[in-house]
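Why should sequence recovery work at all? Because a backbone constrains its sequence more than one might expect. Tight turns favour small or flexible residues, buried strands favour hydrophobic ones, and helices have their own preferences. The token representation captures these environments compactly. In the example below, the structure is given first.
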């Protein structure tokens, strides 16, 4: 079999969920994905030091992980987990029944019979369920079980390998105690702390390159000039014109400064938010010493007069505008989408076999 070099760029993104008024995160995804796929990814690289890759982190995601690490950030879901089940009021019970099943039904709820039973009893779709009525159908113990299950099933395979108590609780399958719940919360904190430590160690090992995205994940071309949307969609209706290139500059400057401090060396790569690029961003990127940019293959096809030959994406290009230039590479969208949205349904062997065939 012919050997080829493949560059894997993993994109880790969560919006900045912190509400500036309440100082709390409105959603739990930084915390829950942190103990799940983000931690799994870092531990996989540690297990296989011969494998190299690039991990792209949105700075606002790293910032929130640090805030969790330093106990400076909580979220509504964690707050509703901490409340003892015996002290839950009707409004809090409604929150738990509405939101504590927000997970993949097939892989994170169905494998645990009691958790699945609770979901069926509540109703698969909370929008078509009388939730005010449903809160009466669960006992105090069952609310406690739901609190624990929701946080427990989010632990990824790396956490389950490292902490046997996670598998013990999963095997217990319900009838949890408040002490069990406290154990789960403490394990989440440990893993989030370990995630950042492991990430710092890996970037020092030369095994992975860390790249970044504009700080708050803005769409750069639209910040520079909203009319740029008409290049891809000529008939689109737009609101009033916004031209704020200084904001685009600020987002890149803030991102590179933050990541340079986190990594303790210069971060040179960037995946622009949603892969959105335009000629006008090139001088700004060059001004901040961005060494390379990655985006989607469709951008290349829309930018060239040649046909959509797949081979065209397997080489770097130089993008130029107004005297500035920057190297740019393009992803294979088909493979990216398979990895992101399909392969998790297969066994590892099946996924690898399919990937190689393509």
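From this structural description, the recovered sequence reads:
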């Amino acid at each position: 079999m012919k050997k080829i070099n493949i560059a894997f760029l993993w994109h880790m993104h969560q919006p900045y969920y912190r509400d500036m008024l309440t100082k709390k995160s409105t959603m739990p995804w930084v915390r829950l994905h942190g103990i799940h796929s983000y931690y799994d990814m870092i531990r996989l690289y540690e297990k296989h030091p011969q494998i190299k890759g690039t991990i792209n982190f949105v700075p606002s995601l790293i910032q929130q992980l640090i805030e969790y690490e330093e106990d400076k950030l909580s979220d509504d879901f964690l707050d509703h987990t901490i409340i003892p089940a015996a002290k839950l009021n009707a409004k809090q019970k409604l929150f738990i029944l509405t939101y504590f099943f927000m997970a993949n039904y097939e892989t994170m709820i169905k494998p645990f019979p009691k958790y699945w039973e609770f979901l069926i009893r509540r109703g698969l779709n909370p929008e078509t369920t009388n939730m005010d009525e449903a809160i009466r159908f669960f006992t105090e113990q069952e609310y406690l079980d739901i609190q624990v299950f929701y946080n427990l099933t989010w632990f990824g395979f790396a956490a389950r390998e490292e902490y046997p108590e996670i598998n013990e609780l999963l095997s217990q399958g319900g009838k949890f105690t408040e002490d069990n719940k406290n154990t789960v919360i403490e394990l989440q904190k440990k893993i989030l702390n370990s995630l950042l430590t492991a990430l710092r160690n890996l970037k020092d090992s030369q095994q992975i390159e860390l790249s970044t995205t504009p700080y708050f994940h803005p769409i750069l071309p639209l910040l520079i000039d909203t009319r740029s949307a008409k290049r891809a969609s000529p008939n689109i209706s737009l609101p009033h014109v916004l031209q704020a290139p200084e904001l685009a500059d600020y987002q890149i400057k803030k991102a590179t400064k933050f990541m340079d401090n986190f990594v303790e060396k210069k971060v040179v790569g960037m995946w622009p938010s949603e892969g959105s690029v335009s000629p006008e961003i090139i001088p700004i990127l060059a001004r901040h010493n961005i060494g390379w940019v990655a985006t989607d293959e469709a951008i290349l096809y829309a930018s060239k007069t040649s046909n959509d030959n797949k081979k065209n994406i397997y080489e770097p290009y130089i993008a130029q505008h107004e005297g500035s230039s920057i190297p740019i590479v393009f992803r294979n969208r088909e493979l990216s989408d398979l990895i992101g949205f399909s392969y998790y349904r297969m066994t590892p062997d099946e996924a690898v076999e399919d990937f190689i065939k393509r």
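A few observations help interpret the result. The mean pLDDT is 94.
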